[in-house]
Amino acid sequence: MPKAPPSVPNNFEAALAELDLLVERMESGQLPLEESLVAYQRGTELLKFCDGVLKDAEQKIKVLDGGELKDFTP
Fold this sequence. Notes:
The chain has two helices and no strands. The radius of gyration is 17 Å and the shape is elongated. The chain starts with 11 loop residues before the first helix and ends in a 9-residue tail after the last helix. By secondary structure, it is mostly helical. It has a single domain (12-65), classed as Exonuclease VII, small subunit (Helix Hairpins).
């Protein structure tokens, strides 16, 4: 039976915490190859999520710095 796809993190902090745990597990050298590949794939997904959140935050800051107080829509 195939595994369900991993869920999207609730927020940046949750994604970063999960990524940190994945890195620790991978660096331990105790994961079998297949689990390492799954962990690497999940880590890549988490990095993309974090990058998107940071880019959105950067855009919001640019709007605020420009003196324009309007809603930001990513």
